[in-house]
Every structure is written in structure tokens, then in C-alpha cells.
Queue: 3 jobs
Job 1
Amino acid sequence: MNPALELALQKAKYYNLPRDVIDKAIKKWSWQLKADDLHEVIYEWYGPGWAAVLVKTLTDNTNRSSSNIRIIFWKYGWNMWEPGSVSRQFKEKWVFEIDWMSEMINDKWNMVEKVNPLDYDEAEMDLLDMDVEDVENEDGHLIVTVDKNNFTSVRDALKAKKYHVIDWALRFLPENTISITWEDEKALESLMEALDADDDVDSVYANNA
């Protein structure tokens, strides 16, 4: 199953959404899988503070999206660079977010699912035994970084261990980060917001710390 569709169905089940909402999710993602006229195009720039910026678009009109992206960058005073000059500083990886784990218990002769808070030390030991690259604790959730080719093995291992994954996504992560000034950070934030507002833009990434 496509990971995006699988996640949509998992969230629908978790939040007990009605059947018609689930059906709409299936139709949405099934349509996207069949949409041969949608193209993924990556644009790359250096932005404020010389932060590396990647823009991922999904579009049925590459001329339109290219023009729109260029105009946004020109408006903010930055120009496109040669393909590969920026993207080589990023790697595409899967990122999982885990919030709790569960176990099946016998409650008056019925097997029910019990939700348990994460034991972070134990969870990190579990995760490091899987094909993961990094584990971080962010606001009580574990953020797990996984090689692009290891999605299925890690997803299945998390399921077998009863970890609850609230989100997963394929993201471009910087190999290294750089520090920029407060002024450049604000300018970069404005630039990324403008890019993200474009209908053809799927995601925007930068390598600032």
C-alpha cells in the first residue's frame, strides 16, 4: 500500500472517523497515485544567510510552477543555482513520529488495548535495534529518522512492538546545518512562507540550524 494512503487510513481509524470520510481519503490518494500528469520537480537556491533551500513541487504544469517559484525568489532577491549544487547537501529520509505504545490485556475475559506512556530509555534501545539512523525526543514524542530504503522494515518492526506512529513523511534532511543571523532567519522564514503558499509547492526545506 502507498505510505501516504496507509497513513491516512491509520489516522482515520485512530480518530474513529465515519466511513464516508475514510472513503474520501481512499479516493483522494488513489486518484493521486493514478494522476500521470502530476510531476515532481525540485528547485534549489541559496537564500538569506546563504542557507541552502530546496523546494519540492507536485504539478501538472511545470512551466507554471517554474515561473511562480522563480518570481518568488526574485522578489526576495535570490536566484536559482545549477541543479545539484544545493540538493547534494540534503538526503531524502523517512521520519516517523511516535507518541505512545500499547499492549493487549485481559479485562473481564475480554482482550482490550491498553495505552501506555513511552519509556524513553527502553524505546530508544528498541529503536536502535531496528534499521533507524537517529532517535530524538521532542516534546514527549520520539522522532525517528530512517533511510529511504528501510521504510517497510521499520514500519513493520514498530507495529510488531506496538508503538503508535502518529505521522510519517518522506523529507529532505540537511547533511549539515549552518547558523545564520536573526535578520537572515526572519528573511528566510518569510521566503519559505511565500513558497509554501504556492499551490504547486509540496514542501520546502532549508539547512539553517
Job 2
Amino acid sequence: MPWGLKRYQNTGDLHFVTFSCYKRLPFLAAPASRRVFEETLERVRGWYGLFVTGYVVMPEHVHLLISEPERGSLRVAIQMLKQITAQKLRPTLSPTEGEEGGAPKRKRTGAAPKRFWQVRYYDFNVRTAKKRIEKLRYLHRNPMRRGLVEKPEDWSWSSFRHYATGEEGIVEIESEWTGRKRERMGVPLRLKVTGNPITFGGVPVSIDSSGPTLSPKEREKDGAPDVVG
């Protein structure tokens, strides 16, 4: 981890996470590529028990507003998300990228790059409702600020439409819409990660930590964060 970069995890906070494509090239310019990212995010959400509060997939970077996972660690969940999307999308890159989705045109020659993602990611702890709303507005308005669309709802690859209409997309969003749906279906409320031991009726609950994990070699590939210690 570079000097000056500190992460505060296992705190029970929401996390505003940002990571970019290698050299900020628009590897997610194609709609099909953004859909692959959404599908992978939903898989990782289910594996690790993440709450996804909001997200946006841009042509060359991603913003996520997510909880700490019920299983494993946030660091490993992000590693898995980046690794799987890189494995799926890197072979699909053509010599010319950025011709779709309004991203700048940048030309490449030769084989696909060795990396899909930039190493590491930005992680900001969101501790208040005011800050949560601020980060949601920021990520939802990102496509509009970039000139990709005129209105946030015109960008399909974000959680905005869910908040505006309750529309269900590929990624399950943790919101009042989702909570009401669970109530109608009689689904028990999900456990909230607080950083403290999880209890039910005063009795500690053991969470199974088994699931997808990364080998030391895999952690070094595709721009996943370096493992310290």
C-alpha cells in the first residue's frame, strides 16, 4: 500500500469505492462490457453478503457505495470483482477502444494489455446519512456531468432508475424499495454489519466465511490491490 493511503475497514461503515481501468483507458466503453461488470458485481454481492447501496459504471472507472461484507473482507471482495471482470473482458478488447458510450477515442496496437484495472482502489468511509446522500448524488450524476447523457435516468448502468422508480436491474440495490418488496414477500430482514459480534436474541451468530478466495498468485494479477503482511 502506498504512503498516505489508509483504509478503515471492519468499522460497520458504508464505503464509497472507486477504481479505474488501466491508464484510465475506456475499457468499459461498450454497453456489453458494462453489463458484464454489473453481472459480476451481483455475483460477488451474493457470495460475500454485500449491501450495494448505489453504483455507476463509467467507460473508464467505477463508483460503488457498498457495505462491508457478511462473509470475508471488503478487500478480498473487491479483489474478486476486479479479477473476474478482467478475466472476462480483457480478451474482448479490440485494437480500437472508446468508440462507444461517448468515451474519448484512444487507439492501441498489438495484443490486449496485461492489466485491465489500475492497481488498488480509492476507499472513503461514509458514516452519516448526509454523506450517503451526497455520494449517491455524485455517482448518479456522473454520466450527466461527463456529457454522456442529458439526464441521470438515461444512463442504464447505474442504480439511479431503481431509486427513481423502483425498477429492478441486474444488481440488487439495498433501498426502501427493496425493503418493502421483502416485507410483501415475508422475507426476513437481512443482518446489518456493525463491526460488532452479530447476535440474535442475545446469542452470537457464527457466519460461515467459506466461499471464493484468492491465491497469493491470483492477488497479483489484473490490478488487484497488493496484499500487505
Job 3
Amino acid sequence: MDPGRPGSVGTDRTNRTEPLGPMRPHEPGRSRRSRRSGLARRVGRWVLGGPVWRLTRLVVVLAAVIVAIVLALSAVHLLPRLSNPFAETTVDRSSPALLRSISALSRYEAASGSFQVIVNLDQRSSWLPPLIMGSQTLFVGQGTDIAFVDFSQLKGSAITVSHNRTAVTVRVPPARLEPAVLNVRRSYVFAQQQGLLNRIGDFFSGNPNSQHQVYVLAAQKIHSAAMHSALLTQAQRNTRLMLTGLLRSLGFRQVTIIFGKA
């Protein structure tokens, strides 16, 4: 129909194309990545919100409840106590003690003294500084020393009895000291510093007698302290009281004890 004629309806059949902007080149890698990310999201939603995740949570909750019940029952002694699987076990594989000798004693242990000594042992090299070679040990030692009177050397001439058998005189040797005995359970190394070469030597040698010197020195110091203490005097006083009571029980009224060469 003629669009210019009155009463006629015209239709515009012209194809109009609007500009859509610049065309992007086809990217095959991008579409693959999109498909992969979408698949990963779907798998993640299925695992986290699906039956696998719910089953995992259920197993974890049940295991926690069972452990809590077992620990509670063990605490109230309804179940045997659980042992530590990482605890150390000590096994004594020592051989039985061997008796070497038996000695007959004819002495009277009259007094005993307990001593404590602090040993500060400093060993240094004359050429190297203490940081390289040397050691300093602070040792706390506790031990005892015993004072005794030896009766094995008494002879007949050491005892004098009066004619009426009412008085007696006894000459006994003076009190002596035994070697000091160190209490290893109560003695310990308080502090120790070693040079670099000493540490390396102890690491490779594994010397079990590394502390032997401080033990010996502590025992010697305890013995020296006992020699200068009142332990010997107290031992002779106790010996006099013991012999006096013994001899008076035998009927002697006058008892004299003299300490000296028997």
C-alpha cells in the first residue's frame, strides 16, 4: 500500500541495527575455567551441606562424648585408671650383691654427727679462657661421721681392780673417727658451668665418673669438719657413761675411766 495515500496504514520493513559496541574475541579457556569453578562450587556445597559432612560431624560428636564418659568414670574410680602410653619404664638389671668379707668388730660407736658442706670446685686452664675450657661446679653434700672407741686392743693390764673389789680403773684408747659417709640421696649438684671443649668431651666420652671428684672432696671436707668439732669429746663422754654403768652393775662402787694408750 502507498504510505502517502490517506487512509492507508504503512509498515516500515526496514531493518534497523543499533551498535552493540566492539566485538570481543572468543576465549575458549575462559569458558573452561567457568565450568570448572561451577563444578567445584557444586561439589563443595554437596560435601559441606550433604550427607558426608553430616556423617562426619556425627562421628566427631559421638567420639567426643565417649571419651568424656570414659574419663569421667575413670576419675570416680568406676573404671580402671588409664595409663600414660608415653610413660617411661625403669627396669633394674643389676646383678645381686656379692659378699666380699666379714670383719669382727670390737668397738663401741659412741657418737655420730651429721654435716653439710658446700663444695665450689673451679677447674681452669692456664692457656684458654673458662668459656673455651674449664668447669665450675657448686655441690651441696650431706653426710655423717661416726666416732668410736676400739676395745680390741684392751689387755689384762688395762684393767686394775682394788683388793676389796669395790674400785676399778679401766684404760681405754681414745675415740677415733671413721671415714665420712656421703648421703648420695640428699647430695646434689646445685649448679655447673662448663667450657665449650668440656661439653664436647663429655658428649662424646659419656664419662660416668665426671662428678666423682666433687663427691670425694665433699667426704673429705665432712671428715675434716668432724675432726675439729666436739664429736670426739662427746664420744669419750658417752663411752665413760656406758662403762661406768656397766661396771657398777657388776658391783663396783668406784669406777675410773682413763682415755690413753691401753
